[in-house]
Amino acid sequence: MEQWSGYLIFIAALGCVFLFSAVGALYWAVKHGEFKKLEKTSRQIFDEEEPEGVHTDYFPGEADKMRRKLERSSRAKAKKTGHAHATPLKD
Predict the structure, then answer these.
(1) pLDDT tens string 54-76
(2) Who contacts 71 (Cβ-Cβ below 8 Å, separation ≥6)?
(3) DSSP string spanning 2-65?
(4) How far is Cα of residue 74 from the mean position of the Cα atoms in its chain?
(5) Mean pLDDT of residues grouped by 10 in the chain (91 residues)?
(6) Residues 6+ apart with CB under 8 A from 52
(7) pTM
(8) CB-hemisphere CA count at 13 Å for 53?
(9) 86 touches 64 (CB < 8 A)
(10) DSSP character for 84?
(11) Distance (Å, whole) CA 43 – CA 51
(12) Rounded distance, CA 89 to CA 49, Å?
C-alpha cells in the first residue's frame, strides 16, 4: 500500500493544479467580460450561406435531397413575403 501513496499524492496534487487552473481561467473570463452578450456573439458565425436554424451539414448522398427541400421552403417563404423570385442556394 505504501508504494501507491506516492502516486496518490501526485494525482491529488495534479488534480488540485487542474482545479485551480480552471477556477483561475473562469475568474479571468468573468473579469474580462467574456460572458457578456453571449446571445449576440454566438450568432456571429452565421451568414446568408449558412443561416441560423438551417441544417447545412449532411451525410454523403443526402445533400441533394436536403438542398431541394431548402429550395422549396425558400420559394414558399418568398411567395409568402411577396418577393418575386427566391434566391437559389449556392454550392
Answers:
(1) 777 777 777 777 778 778 887 87
(2) 86, 88, 89
(3) HHHHHHHHHHHHHHHHHHHHHHHHHHHHHHTTTTTTHHHHHTTT--SSS-TT------TTTHHH
(4) 24
(5) 83 97 96 84 75 74 78 78 56 47
(6) 43, 46
(7) 0.45
(8) 0
(9) no
(10) S
(11) 9
(12) 8
| Distance (Å, whole) CA 9 – CA 19 | 15
Q: What is the CA radius of gyration of the chain?
A: 25
- CA 53 to chain centroid, in Å, comes to 12
Are the CB atoms for 55 and 66 separated by under 8 Å? yes
Is residue 50 within 8 A of residue 9, CB to CB? The reply is no
Q: What is the sign, positive or negative, of the torsion defined by CA atoms of 32, 33, 34, 35?
A: positive
